[in-house]
Amino acid sequence: MKKKIISSGIGIILLTWVVDVNAEYTGPVYTSSDISTVEVVKTMKDDVPVVLRGRVIGQLRDEHYLFHDSSGEIDIEIDRHVWLNVDDVDQDTFVTIYGEVEREKGSVSVEVYRIEVNASGKAGGSQ
Fold it and tell me: InterPro entries in the record, alphabetically (predicted)?
């Protein structure tokens, strides 16, 4: 009888452990090697997913902005709904943008589907 109780107890513990192990983050994982530069993005094909780090340095028109990193500048399109739940961003705020390359009529831009304010916050003049 003791063996059955001990076996049942061990089985419950193992089952709980297996359930806990299977509960983990399942979304996309980005490493620093996934982060591109403006210079590289300008050579990519249409619809390629990209991640960029830098600053939004100005608004060009409606939903179009100028993005800057250490390699250059590029037009990015950020729909209004993407800005929801994003802290205030100005030309000195470092951000990470997630989007895809848009090639149209000889120009290259990035359609942004997510923007995050980096923990480092404001620029210190390095980019």
Answer: BOBF_sf, CarO-like
